[in-house]
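Form 7-S
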Amino acid sequence: MKAIIPAAGIGTRLRPHTHTLPKALLYVAGRPIISHILEDVKKLGASSVVLIVGYKGELIQEYVAKEYKDLNAEFVFQAERSGIGHAVHLTRSVADTGEPALIILGDTILRTDLARIVGSRTNVLGVKEVDDPRRFGVCEVRGKRIVRLVEKPKDPPSNLALVGLYFLRDSSLLFQVLGEQIDKGIRNHGEYQITDALQMMIDRGSEFETFQVGEWYDCGKPEALLETNRRLLEGQTEVPATEGSIFVPPVSIAPTARIVNSIVGPHVSIAADSAVENSIVKDSILDRGANVSNCLLAGSIVGSQAVVRGGFQHLNIGDSSEVIHE
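Output:
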């Protein structure tokens, strides 16, 4: 099985953080988004993992090379972001081998039984019931079998939204129809949608079933990233033993983070080499090397090497910035 991870998104709604990092490397619940996905994929024994990168893609390559040395990773560059269908098509030279393909979007964190999906004898699409399916690709089903797929419909045929998880037994047919889609310029909402390619497969007799995923976490906006951090940390009870400070679980504190005379938690992720001193920090994410002192910080995202000092703060501050309240 090949695992394909489209991770070329710019993440404009997550600025200022994505001015310096690709969205897939933003920190949440103890590790970058892409790491949550790669940890899940590693357990499945994929023959290789193909990552589609674009904006600041060299940083993803460097991260994977450093942290996942044993992973058979290949990289494909998407210069023009023209949709998920276009991104997956770019992997054809390395991924169209006749093996089944598992596609997981690089900004989607799932907590579900992936082993059951890849053990299926047919094509499977991960779905979740949502209140407003008009923002998603949507399935029309008979039983568990999918009969129609529609991208961002004005009048949804169901409330079953595609969550960015696709398992293709018929992977060669997928690459064939993606090629036809691009050759004919078949776009939807201005992009080459993988939803349209999957519908072409259904029209040619390929069978698809739905799989209701357990938990599906959005990382597209700052408030969504904080909510994902809260949800993923739930259930963690381990806290570091640091004299002079109090930790209110759940928290994720990197071993090299320095916490002095502070109260940290609940729902706080602090990355490596960060420092918190004489402060109260809750419901927040501090990226690598962040420095927080003499303040109360809540509902905040503090970028790598950023400095926050003094006062009550509710922040969304990018890398290498300073906020000082005298």
